[in-house]
Amino acid sequence: MNLNFLDFEQPIAELEAKIDELRHVGITSDVSLTDEVARLHSKSIKLTESIFSSLTSWQVSQLARHPQRPYTLEYIDRIFTGFQELRGDRMFADDSAIVGGLARLEGRPVMVIGHQKGRDTKEKVYRNFGMPRPEGYRKAMRLMEMAERFHLPLLTFIDTPGAYPGVDAEKRGQSEAIARNLFVMSDLKTPIISTVIGEGGSGGALAIGVCDRLLMFQYSTYSVISPEGCSTILWKSADNAADAAEVMGLTAQRLRDLGLIDEIIEEPLGGAHRDVDLAAENLRKALLKNLDTLGAMTIPELQEKRYHRLRQYGVDNFQE
Amino acid sequence: MSWFEMLLPPKIKTSGSFGKKDIPEGLWKKCPACSAVLYRAELERNLDVCPKCGHHLRIGARRRLDILLDESPREEIASSLKATDPLKFRDLKKYRDRLSEAQKRTNELDALVVIKGELKGDPIVAAAFEFEFMGGSMGTVVGEKFLRAADLCMEQDIPLICISASGGARMQEALFSLMQMAKTSAVLRRMSHRGIPFISVLTDPTMGGVSASLAMLGDVIIAEPMALIGFAGPRVIEQTVRETLPEGFQRSEFLVETGAIDLIADRRDLREAIASILGILSGKKAAVS
């Protein structure tokens, strides 16, 4: 079993392994296997298409946290130039679960902020699994206010299981740090585009996600609580995470149908991790297009629209 | 309690078929903190603060507003708002069933009650969470009622007071409930720009999405003694860090020490404290005594 593939990706993994093997044989011997490789390759594509055409919400949740899924810095590397990371909250510490800084997108100056997860064990710990502490949110707020002062559009990338539930985080005011960001972002005088690139985990995600345009990658998720957490509380057992994922409607498709997000960014066949460059290219295009739209508005217009948008959340979910 | 039950050791008494942890509808009530058996009428006169140990018992939203506000005038705001569940959410039970159960039990339509009234003759809008209604969780109705409360304050240039008691966002409304955090924070931002005071009162418990939005955005944040206040619940934290939490962790006293809130006020002094603070914030001159 290939650990870099999820359960439902295993048939694809096996086929890909076979293709690799044949290619290797083709190189080292005189036998021409080109046709066979091509045949298997198209079979692999068909198989992937068929598996990915009917993913359950739970499978999407797993893709959103796939061990090979690209993280914020990988997208920053591919999309922006001149990225200068800016660190620290100027009060307590730098939190490596959130990265941010100045950059250019096709020459245009912008501010970028995103959750950052780690790839190997050491980096995972260093990045605290992408779970920010208050200093992370306060660093983000510092950068948001800087973006406002220097008229830089703000681009945020969401990818977190949630804000860190730890003793130190509580001591330093996790709630206040999140609340303050929502407060400040709600009328920040600059365009804000937020993109969920992986996991959008609850308040810890929203704390950098109040925006004018909310985009989601095709296989990312956004929810009020993790499927596991929801299962534990409502089903009183951790075994119903798949049911919880289904009923919470946390996929991009469902959230767009519900009018909660603006746009879905298409992922390469098999998910962003199968072709990071292509995923990054799709993201870049989406960001540019939305920046153009927002750039056509004056700041007061933008603020008024954002305020109206925030006020409208859920108005179809009750009656007088 | 019968003579027979009196003879039984406490463990058997509370877990046996005849033993109940508290005595509902009776003349007596047991303090959950010091276990003193209290005369209900006296406890009520004392605003449900245990006369023996000072423990603040949990009380409902209407009672809280009743304690805070002058007797008249009072006008309830957005009282008919009712969740419709477009998601058709279902876990072990249907959300609709959970809603109607909670409505029957609490006699409220949702977890927030908003009343426009007066505090010592000055008009205010006061909101209070009903914890007995699905753990005081914030869904779209709570968010909308809070928004309308704040709108009214801006319209009439009067202060807003919110008394929180909530487990956080309402899972049954999924991402819609998360967005109520942004919605309530946005209206508070606008109110803040207009110079309208917002006093946030935190009671036991104020957690999760409510704590991480409107509750922590007060110009002045007041807590009742010993209230549990925080983002993550103590059990979640214990599972994460795999250690027992220190005594008093996430309690009001801890929050004053860590700088998260302004002050702790005894329930019996809350009305006075708020009136005094609002008097100063509104720039009114007080009579010199």
What does this structure look like?
The complex is a heterodimer of chains A (320) and B (289). With 320 residues, chain A is of the alpha/beta class. Chain A is built from 14 helices and 9 strands. In chain A, strands 1, 2, 3, 4, 5, 6, 7 and 8 form an 8-stranded mixed sheet that branches. The mean pLDDT of chain A is 95. With 289 residues, chain B is an alpha/beta fold. Chain B has 11 helices and 10 strands. In chain B, the strands form 2 sheets. In chain B, strands 3-5-6-7-8-9-10 form a 7-stranded mixed sheet, with helices on both faces. In chain B, helix 7 links the parallel strand 7 and strand 8. In chain B, helix 6 runs parallel beside helix 7. Chain B is globular.
What is the helix tally of chain A? 14
Overall mean confidence score, pLDDT of chain A: 95
Q: Into which percentage range does the β-strand content of chain B fall? A: 15-25%
Decide which structural class fits the backbone of chain B: alpha/beta
Low-confidence stretches of chain A: none
Largest beta-sheet details of chain A: 8 strands, mixed
Helix percentage range of chain A:
40-55%
- Give the oligomer, counting copies of the same chain as homo and different chains as hetero: heterodimer
Provide the structure class of chain A.
Answer: alpha/beta
What percentage of residues of chain B falls in helices of 4 or more residues? 25-40%
What's the helix count of chain B? 11
Count of extended strands of chain A: 9
Largest interface comes to: A-B, 57 and 65 residues
* Terminal CA distance of chain A: 55 Å
Instruction: Kindly provide the radius of gyration of chain A, computed on alpha-carbon positions and rounded to a whole number of angstroms.
Output: 21 Å
Question: How far apart are the first and last residues' alpha carbons of chain B, in Å?
Answer: 52 Å
Quote the beta fraction of chain A: 15-25%
Q: What would you report as the Rg of chain B, rounded to the nearest angstrom?
A: 20 Å
